[in-house]
Amino acid sequence: MRAFETSRFSVRGRWLALLLGLLVGVPVPRPAAAQQNTNAKPAAPPETVFQPDVRFQARDGVELALRLWRPETVEQVPVVLQHTPYLSDETHLRAQKFVAAGFAYASLDRRGRGVSGGDYVPLENSGPDGADAVAWLAAQPWSDGRVASMGGSSRGMTQWQMLAEQPPALLAAAPTASVYPGWDFPQPRGIFLSYMAQWLAFTDGRASNTQVFGDVSYWRGKYERIHRGELPFSELARISGAPQARFERWLAHPGFDSHWRSLNPSAEDYARMQPPLLSITGYFDGDQEGTLRYYEEHLRHASADIADRHWLLIGPWNHAGTRTPTRTVGGLEFADAAILDIDALHIAWFNHVLRGAERPAALAGRVNYYVMGAEEWRHADTLQDVAAHTWALYLDPDGADATSVFHSGRLGAAPPARATPSSYRFDPSVVHGGEPVLTSGPDTYAGHAGAGRPNQLFFHSAPLPAARTVCGQIRFQAHIEIDVPDTDVHVELFEVDAKQAIRWLGRDYLRARFRESFSEERLAQPGRIETWNFDRFWWTCRRLEAGSRLRLVIGPVDTPDLQKNLHTGGRIGFERMEDARTATVRLHHDRRYPSRLLLPTVEPID
Predict the structure, then answer these.
(1) pLDDT of residue 8
(2) pLDDT of residue 44
(3) pLDDT confidence of residue 46
(4) Distance CA 551, CA 135 (A)
(5) Which structural domain range is residue 536 located in?
(6) What is the model's pTM?
């Protein structure tokens, strides 16, 4: 989703052209002209024909609108399509890059947005409209009949919904930072993002609404009122002016249930998808989970030859950086190698899959990822090939109560034979100060600003004797006992290097009622020790320096960016502060109930 990425909780990238052209019955491009004289002056880019308001009818008779940029030439050209809820004026500069490279570029406004007719329903049913746009574009006299798609965030989601429709003329797709409805937005892990009201307000009606969306202090005030318990979370849309009916529609589905599953491709849909794909995400991208879920589900259900034509690119980028990378993200600084020209990469990849050009060097492998710390790109055939080893670290209080950085437990190679459980208490009616909910700056990934907050448990590893590269999805397996029917537990991991510089490595969080399944709620039984699997850390890759230690932090989810759990076990979003209960969370960590951190590593573990 488009967002101010202001907290780690907030919301806030053809070699078969001839064969496919024959199979789907679209025009096949003529062979390239003979090689030109290399001493000749390069031809000037073509003039742009700009059509700001082009209308066509969808299959149900609704009139949809797109903007079109195309080269002024008698040659037929392939078309690149984006499908956006954010109005098509956003892409004028990007479109002209594609025109200069010999493509037409079309931006379709979502149904009910901009000047497209019909009613807009967020996150839902964009696939048929996208497929109809592909068919219309392929049939135009200036088109060579071949269409590719691109776009990030919601524009990535619209591509996947369109792919499920199997439009014959769609011969390549590049979904970036793609929203996966019900999985990473609007309620990751069954916990609603406050940002969902802000985003609904942003995309409400036909106007752009950029000023209300960007009013940081306005939204901060609304989030904090709810967080303080003045009103239940269900009132957020009403007090902020976000569309109430749509907010309530989402709030009625806290789990990943049949409602959300119906909005995403099915196993059969993935199995029928034919075009080459390029998926792009970042280590700090709030929609990384969505991107990788689409990627993994497609690979799981596609045939081997189709799966072999799905490339993945993961860089040290936040959500916006998956389109426009920067050297600095949240206080972390990266080398020039991290800064790719993503538009140029798309053009080169489309030239590869549609025109038979050489594949871009950035996509040397099926999986292409950046190693932070080493500051270099590496390549693999699969995500599983990246790191073959697992580094297991067991929690041990080691005689400390583990309630502060200075009285922490340790992370060791084996669990203690016996140990008193570590514990914290969390009263949701007590509001702690801290960093602002929203700022105009980036997320903070350098440092540990929350280290002094109460109600947390800390564990440190010994210093590393040599550098070690952690690449992949970190996991944490914990044995937890609570005395209320529901609570939220947050886990966060940092590197503390030999000079005491701190770098964020990842986080995960769980709501007790979704500890077994994100699809079904089951309240906890107070006093029972159960295994909680924190297995949705974001995929990351960093070279840890010799002398570095790991810092693991466990505590409550306590931020205005997320709907607060009041521990009653009541209906999510409708609990009231006067009914809140204080939770005691006990973390067990002995030989009988071991709690451990699992990190995928490139190097073998001694």
Answers:
(1) 43
(2) 75
(3) 84
(4) 53
(5) 389-601
(6) 0.92
